[in-house]
Amino acid sequence: MDARLDYFADPTAGKALKHVMSAGRLVKESPLPARTQELVSLRVSQINGCAVCIDMHTKDAAAHGETAVRLNLVAAWRETTVFTEAERAALELAEEGTRVADAAGGVGDEVWAHAAEHYDDEQLTALVIHVSFMNAVNRLNVIARQPAAGDYEPGQFR
After folding, report:
1. Is 52 domain-assigned?
2. CA angle, 45 as apex, 56 and 73 as ends, to 5°?
3. Sign of the four-CA dihedral 26, 32, 33, 35
4. Domain that holds residue 26
5. How many domains does the chain fold into?
6. Which residues contact 101 (CB under 8 A, 6 or more apart)?
7. Cα–chain-centroid distance for residue 25?
């Protein structure tokens, strides 16, 4: 499968993506735990079917010490015991924030309250921006059929 667009060669994409990726770096530096960020990145990417991002975030998480068991169970996190309550709250918010059309109203009050029990305002802000960022990047990749899944090396885009 060939990519429909070459974001690296297109001047408009280059200008726009410079700012998009800058926002992603700011979230990486936020007080939202890095492990939570990777789990959320992986779950949002699974929902959106973004193979490039699934590949990237699985490998980056593993390179930072995430276990294979936890990575393999992200898609079924509700039925597991391997995630903390805080991680579960973040994954639930990420799912509802990703499935806005399906959730008929976005993130529910109970889901928000559960996340707010585990994260302060700055972390919640970072979580919301991170979910939004991952959805945007997933859509860029899926729409343009970016085919690089499988070739990613951990830390490649730092």
Report:
1. yes
2. 85
3. negative
4. 22-143
5. 1
6. none
7. 13
Amino acid identity for residue 153 in this structure: E
149 pLDDT exceeds 80? Answer: no
CA 74, CA 80: separation in Å to the nearest integer?
Answer: 9
Which is nearest to 114 in space by CA: 134, 156, 84?
Answer: 84
**Averaged over 27-42, what is the pLDDT?**
96
Question: Which residues, at least 6 apart from 25, have a Cβ–Cβ distance to it below 8 Å?
Answer: none
| Within-domain flag for 123 | yes
d(CA 8, CA 140) in angstroms, rounded, equals: 13
pLDDT band at 75 (very low <50, low <70, confident <90, very high): very high
Q: Can you say how many angstroms the Cα of residue 87 is from the centroid of all Cα atoms in its chain?
A: 13
**In the block, which residue shows the tokens 């007080």?**
31
Please state whether the predicted TM-score (pTM) of the whole model is above 0.85.
yes
Q: What is the pLDDT of residue 13?
A: 83
CATH of the domain at 100: 1.20.1290.10
In a domain, residue 15? The reply is no
The answer to the question of residue 151 being in a domain is: no
